[in-house]
Amino acid sequence: MKLKILYNLTSYSFKYRLKLNHKQSYLSMIFSNFYSTNTDELKEYNIPLENIRNFCIIAHIDHGKSTLADRLLEITGAIKINSGMQVLDKLQVEKERGITVKAQTVSLKYMLNNKEYQLNLIDTPGHVDFSSEVHRSLAACQGVLLVVDANDGVQAQTVANYYLAHGNKLKIIPIINKIDLKNANPEKVEQQLSTIFGINGDEIIKISAKHGTYVDEVLKAVVERIPKPTCVRDKSLKVLIFDSWYDSYRGAVLLVYIKDGIISTGDRITSCNTGKSYEVKLLLLLRPEEEKVNKIYAGQVGCIICKMKYDEASIGDTLYLYGNPVEPLPGFNTTKPMVYAGVYPVDSSQYHSLKNAMDKLTLNDNAVSIINESSPALGQGWRLGFLGLLHMEVFSQRLEQEFDTPSIFTTPGVVYKAKIFGKKNITHYKSDEVYFCNPSHIPNISIVKEMYEPTVLGTIITPGDYYQSILHFCLERRGIEKSNKNIDESRIILQFILPLNEIITDFHDELKRMTSGYASFDYEDYGYQLSDIAKMEILLNGRPVEELSTIVNMSKSVSKAKKICAKLLNVIPRQQFLISIQARIGSKILARENLPALRKDVTAHLYGGDVTRRIKLLQNQAQGKKKMRMIGNIALPRKVFVDLLKT
C-alpha cells in the first residue's frame, strides 16, 4: 500500500514538473519572439536618400494640425479612410483635452510619378507650453508645413513657430486650412502672411483638412519643395535620440534620426553620454503601427529597442557603433523651466512609487526638471520645473492616468534672484547672486543689495477693438508696453514686458474672456528685472508659521495678504480659544482675521437662582479661554496646508 502511494505521488510530481517546464518554455518562447533577431523574418526597407523627406507640421493651437495629419495618413494608405479623429493623438490626456501635447512620428509610403517616396511626418503640439517638443522635432526635419486657420488668421504661436523654423534654416510650406468654414477669409490671411513674414501668395496652399480638399497638393509640395536629408550612408554610424518613452516590457524605447551610416538588428551601440554599450534587439518603423525591420538607413526615422534602462536614456544623446567613436551631434539646449511647483505624495508610503513614476514620465518629457525638497508640513517631496501652467496640469494628469500615482501639487511659483554684499556673506553663499523659489531660502534682508524677478516678452495678437481693455489689463499685471503694430485693418500685434509671476496662473484665461476668445498669447524669456519683492509671513496668535510664508511684490502685498488670511479663516479648524490670523512683512501687519473660539454653554445646567451665579461662570470661562490662548499650541493638520498650497 505504501509503495503504491509513493508511486502515485512520484507520478503526480513528475507530471507537475512537466507541466511547469512546459509553461516556462512557453514563456521563454514568447519573450524570445518579442526580441526576435531572426533577420529572415524582418523586412528591409532600403529607399534611396533622394526619395526621403523629413518634415513636421507646426501651427497655433486648434488650427488643424492633427486633422491634416489624419488626411495625409489616409491618402498614403497608412490608415483606413474615416478610421477615427486625431489618430496620432494617442495619449488619454490628448483625447480628453482635444489638444496635442506630444509630438508623434509616422513613416508614410507615397507614390509620385512612378517613384516611391518615404515621408517621415512629425505632428507637433501648438501650445507654447510644449514648444520644446517642436524644437526637438525640427532637428530631425528638413522642412515644415506652417498651417494657419482661414478664419482666425495668424496667431501668436504661428509667429513663434515660423521664426523657430526659419532659424533652423528649414524649408517652409505655408498652408491656409479650413477654407470650407462659413466665415473663412483666405485672402485676408494670405495678406497677413505677406505682411508679417513676407511670404509670396504663389507659395501658399489653400486646403480643407476636414474634407480633404486639395490635401493631395500638400503631399506633392512636400516632395517637390523640401530637400532630401543631408546624410551619408557610407560613413560611421551616428544616431540622434530626439524622443523616448518607457515601456513596461521593453524598457526605454528610443525614437531616433539616423544622421549617418546604417544600423542593423544585432549591432552593438554605445552612448556618448554614459559610455555604456547595448545590443540592438529590435528596430521599428512607425506607420503608424509598429513595423519590424532589419535595418534603418541614414536619413530615416525609427525606433531602437536595446534593453536600455529608463534612467540611462537621454534625449539629445548620440549613439555610435561599439569601437567606432564619433563626434557627438549638437543635441538640444537644456530647456529653462518657467514655472516651479512642489510635488508631494498623498501618503508618505507612496514616496518611492511616485518617484519611479516621475522618472519614467520625464523620459518622455525631458522639459521637466526635478529637485529634491522637503516640507515640515507635507514631508519629503520634490520641486518640479515646468514650461508653463498647462504643462504642469498635463504632467499631473499623466502621472495619475498612466502610472496610477495621485499626488499633491502646490501653487506654482517662479525663481527669484537676490544680489548680496559682503565678502563673508558671499563665501557663505558661494556667489554674490542667490537664486530661490522657496520663501524659507530667501536671504536675510540685512545682506541683500537688490532683488530681481524673472520677466517675459509677451506677444498678443488681437482685434483692434480690444486694445484699450488689454492695455489696462496688462498694466494692472505690472506690464510695460514695448510695441504695437497693425497686421491689417482689423488686427494688431502687441508686445509687453511682463513679470512671469503675473502670467503663470490666470492671465491667459482672463485675456480670452475679455476678448471673447479672439486674442492669442505667446511669451519668451526676457531675463531678470529689478523688483521690490519681500517675504510675507503668516502669524497665528503672534507666532509665525514658516510653512505658510510666501514671496510677494510690495505693490500687490496688501491684496495678497487679505486673500490668504480670508482663505485660512475657512480652512483652519476652530479651537477652544480665539485665533488671530495675521500677515506681515518685516514688522508691518498687512491684514488680520479672527477665528472665533468654540463656545461651550457652561450655564446650561442652571435652572434658576441668582443671576450672579451665571455671571460668575461666564467670567471664569472667559479667563480660562484667555489663559488657553496664551499657552495653547495651534497644531495645524496636514489638510490645512494641502488646501492652502495646492492649485
What is the CATH T-level topology of the largest domain? Rossmann fold
- Could you tell me the strand content as a percent range? 25-35%
Query: Using only CA atoms, what is the Rg?
Result: 31 Å
Major sheet characteristics: 8 strands, antiparallel
- Summed up, the domain count is 5
Shape: globular
Walk across the major sheet and give the strand order. 11-10-16-7-8-15-12-13
- Total helices: the number is 15
Using DSSP, what is the number of strands? 31
Mean of the pLDDT scores?
A: 83
Low-confidence stretches: 1-40
Description:
The chain has 15 helices and 31 strands. The chain is an alpha+beta fold and 647 residues long. The strands form six sheets. Strands 11-10-16-7-8-15-12-13 form an eight-stranded antiparallel β-sheet. The protein has a six-stranded mixed β-sheet with strand order 2-3-1-4-5-6, with helices on both faces. Helix 8 crosses helix 9 (389-403) and helix 13 (557-571) packs antiparallel against helix 15. 37% of the residues are buried. Its EC number is 3.6.5.n1. Pfam families: EFG_C, GTP_EFTU, LepA_C. Belongs to the TRAFAC class translation factor GTPase superfamily. Classic translation factor GTPase family. LepA subfamily. Residues 50-230 form the Tr-type G domain.
